[in-house]
Amino acid sequence: MKKIITVAVGLATVASAALAAAVVGPGPSAGVASSHREAPLIAEDPSADNTDLYAFRSPDRPDSVTIISNWIPGEDPAAGPNYYTFSPSARYNIYIDRNGDARPDITYRFRFGRTAGPLFLGNTVQKYTATRTENGKTRVLAWAKTPPNNIGPRATPDYRALAANAVVDAKGTKVFAGQRDDAFFGDIGAIFDLLAFRKGTGAEGGGKDFFAGYAVHSIALQIPIADLKAKNSTIGVWSSTDRLNVTVAGKVRKGWSQVSRIGNPLVNEVVVPTKFKDLWNRSQPVNDKQFAGPVLTPILAKLMNDLYKVNAPETNRDDLVAVFGTGVQGLNYTGPTVADLLRLNYSIPVTPSDKVNRLGVIGGDNGGFPNGRRLADDVVDAAEQVMAGFLKGNKVPLGDGVNTGDVPALGFFPYQADPASGFANTKGQQKP
Amino acid sequence: MRTLTAVALATALAAGVLLGGVLREDPAEAAAPNVAATRALQEAAELQLQARATGNPELYPRIEAALRRALRLDPESAAPLRGLAAVAASRHRFSESLELAEAAWKLEPEVAAVYGLIGDANLELGRYRRAFAAFDRLAALKPSASSYARTSYARELRGDMRGAIAAMRLAVDASAPTGEPAAWTRTLLGNLLLSDRQPLAARRSYREALLFVPGYPAGLAGLGEVELARGNIRGALPFLRRAARAGAAPEFAALLGDTAARAGLEAEARRAWREAEELERLFARHGGRNLLETAEFDLTHDRDVRSALDRARRGRAERPSVEGDHVLAWALYKNGLCAEARRVSLRSLRLGTLDVDGLYHHSLIERCLGNAAAAQKYRDRVQRLDPTYLAAPPSAKQLRPPTG
Questions:
Q1: I want to staple B66 with a disulfide (CB 3.0 to 4.6 A). Which of A83, B44, B110, B293 is the partner?
Q2: To probe the interface with B, which of A7, A121, A194 has the most B CB atoms within 10 Å?
Q3: Where do the H-state alpha helices sit in B74-216?
Q4: Does B251 touch chain A (CB under 8 A)?
């Protein structure tokens, strides 16, 4: 049995018992939502896994739009020596459609270098190149560096300054790439337990935020509105990750394939059936009409009725197609092309901070989701209420009981809070 | 034969990750009306994780039962079929695995992972054109650690070591930088680097793997192999002992036995060999097919060669891959049937794999037939590929006289 065809026993037999914990382990390696768990095999490629996308008019610089795209679900800052970075062999994209055809008019693309030393020494700074393509012309937007991951006060002292120094100004566009606190919040434990509500119908708090203390890797852009020039002042934004193509007979060769994408929150999780998730992740938004079926008759609406008798409309859900696929008339409609884009009408003013409603448009606040998405928008509650038929007059105060993130956002670019440090280990238990 | 260890791990990843992967359902479906089917799938996934962690083949029948239950409850779902295909592959039942994977493909052709299963099974059944086409399809639909690792293995089989290493580096980049996936891809990269005579780079890769998963048996075995490649038999032993102790894999116990024997530690060698045989018996008792494995073990240790030839013939009939050909050719040689051995051995080399064992065995077969020039040619290739190999080659002894 030396040198034998041990084929598949492989991992079954080479792993130690200790490994089981690593595989099954606690924490959001088994994470979900918003796009924290998706197509079967993307789970093994977290550095290519788009988790959330945000787009909003910058509150402190209202002549600009901020776009934030997050990757790598559930980074535990305290899980050294396993530190996450952007993949040096992937390509990270943010696309903007300015005329409603669901094709990119402006493309921002990021490629990251390898870290200078072994990751387990905490050396997580990566150089990167950002490019901007418009009208077929590509120019370098920035050559810059990420800050290190937030390891702790000895390895990465004064983290605020490290992060601030990583913001670059590229001819009026601000750029940041690196680790951030995950702004997403939600009671994933309850949602997975057959959409359980810990308290009432979920709109009265009492939930447990699964994402507290976890980090993501983030790319943030702050783009002058003058550079956007969108029809009806409405842009469609989406983000994706590409990986290199290979063939058995070829060397590692040119060419890329998209392996992940995101537009609106929760679409991949809630709307796209499992068997189509790979197809979804590799397809382009312009072809999203093929997925309209599950949106018109969503399985989740039926499930909510079966479980809680909320009277959600189960068929002909053109309201959902509007929210996720075309934009809502009078708000951020971009035309008849059905595509999962995060649509932002940037002519709508920034909502003053004392008027912000976490539910966004259904809470009477047009400055938030689904008119773009702000960091504090409670998309889980909004999605549950919309799914129950809010826009069709069936207003049920559903929610997961988690109404804010665990850490307040910064009041300035890149907005998402600094990640918790590994040393702080916010999820750990202090022993006596 | 690094190649074979790589297969081991490649298909393993495939099976393990895949099964884990397919069974992860999203909230909508986890709570779908067919909750019982989903629960059965989850049970299978948990058992599969246990099987991966402990290497205990007793879990396979239980995983299979849970998946069959899921399939009965939800016959339209391809997930249980993909799971069953993966379990069949784990038990080396590749015809069965292929049948199940193709049934899954018919139900859900858009799921990329099924091409990995189809490719793995075809590869072990010796249908290389189909296997490589399936891997290319997988990579086109979804480049990922598991597609890169499979592409790497296919390139290795074709003798393209540089291409294999390049693809495995992509697999390292595309795997999670934590725990098992990180350790797994780095171990495979180490194996390739070692085969490519880059022992120091290989050692770095194994050490990285061990930082991600302390005590990772395949990484420890790799460090042992690095020492063996440097001729440091005593230095290899501590690593191999830990690998054999930590993992329940017969190949690590067998390698420890062989190395202990080279170091003159006969009692330890015998213990390790017995452990390896016991693990193979356990695997077979729970539905695993290992005729080729046990045949090769016996042939390498010059015992039971008649029965080994019988097992090699039957094993190759169920697994007509280049590995099947290789073991059968070696069994024929050991039994003095050199003419038939040559035909089968040439088949085993048909992909151009840079497999030192296969090439060395072929040189012995040519010598047995009196083809001195050909024998020398293959010996020279072995020497070029691994200058240390001929210092301690496998036993060339034939237990029955050559009969032509």
A1: B44
A2: A7
A3: 79-90, 94-107, 113-124, 128-141, 145-157, 161-174, 179-195, 199-212
A4: yes
User: Within 13 Å of residue A181, how many CA atoms lie on the same side as its CB?
Assistant: 23
Nearest chain B Cα to A269, which residue? B26
Q: Could you read off the pLDDT of B5-61 as tens digits, one per residue?
A: 333 333 333 333 333 333 333 444 444 546 788 888 888 888 887 777 677 888 999
CB atoms closer than 10 angstroms to residue B267: 8
Record: contact A275-B78, CB cut-off 8 A: yes
Residues in chain A with CB shorter than 8 Å from the CB of B327 are 5
Contact criterion met (CB below 8 Å) for A199 and A205: yes
pLDDT digits (tens, 9 = 90+) for B203-218: 999 999 998 888 988 9
Cis ω before B250 (30° cut-off from 0):
no
The answer to which of A190-199, A230-239, B175-184, B380-389 has the lowest mean pLDDT is A190-199
Q: At B64, is the pLDDT very low, low, confident or very high (cuts 50, 70, 90)?
A: very high
Asked whether the beta carbons of A256 and A335 are under 8 A apart, the reply is no
Residue B147 to chain A, least CA–CA distance (Å) = 9
Give domain limits for chain A: 2-392
Q: How many CB pairs lie under 8 A apart between chains A and B?
A: 333
CB contact under 8 A, A48 and B174: yes
Residue at B338: amino acid letter? C
Confidence of residue A6 (pLDDT cuts 50, 70, 90): very low
Residue type, B135: F
User: For chain A, what is the radius of gyration of the CA atoms?
Assistant: 21
Nearest residue, CB atoms, B110 vs list A22, A24, A275: A275
If one counts every other C-beta atom within 10 angstroms of the C-beta of residue A165, the result is: 11
Predicted confidence at residue A251, as pLDDT, reads 54
How many Å is the maximal CA-CA distance in chain B?
71
Alpha helices in B213-337 (DSSP H): 217-229, 233-246, 250-262, 266-285, 291-300, 305-318, 322-334
C-alpha distances out from residue A329 to A235, A345, B318, Å: 14, 11, 63
Residue A209: pLDDT band (50, 70, 90) is confident
Chain A nearest CA to B339, separation (Å): 24
Of the candidates A187, A183, A193, the residue with the CA atom closest to the CA atom of residue A209: A187
**Contact across the interface for B52 and A19, Cβ inside 8 Å:** yes
pTM over 0.95: no
Residue B211 touches chain A, beta carbons under 8 Å: yes
Write out chain B residues lying below 8 Å of A252, CB-based: 163, 166-167, 170
Chain A's closest residue to B294, CA to CA, is A1
Torsion of Cα atoms, A142 then A148 then A154 then A158, to 10°: 40
Q: Closest by alpha carbon to B119, among A283, A7, A90? A: A7
Q: Percentage of chain A surpassing pLDDT 90?
A: 61
Task: Measure in Å the smallest separation between the Cα of A124 and chain B Cα atoms.
Answer: 12
Domains and CATH numbers, chain B: 1-139 (1.25.40.10), 291-391 (1.25.40.10)
Tally of residues, chain B:
404
Contact list in A for residue B294 (CB cut-off 8 A) is 1
Shortest alpha-carbon distance between residue A22 and chain B (Å): 6
**Distance of residue B255 Cα from the nearest chain A Cα, in angstroms:** 5
Using one digit for the tens of pLDDT, what is the confidence trace for B306-356?
Answer: 999 999 999 999 999 999 999 999 999 999 999 999 999 999 999 999 999
Contact at CB, B50 and A194, closer than 8 angstroms: no
Nearest to A270 among B5, B28, B277 (CB): B28
| B259 Cβ under 8 Å from any chain A Cβ | no
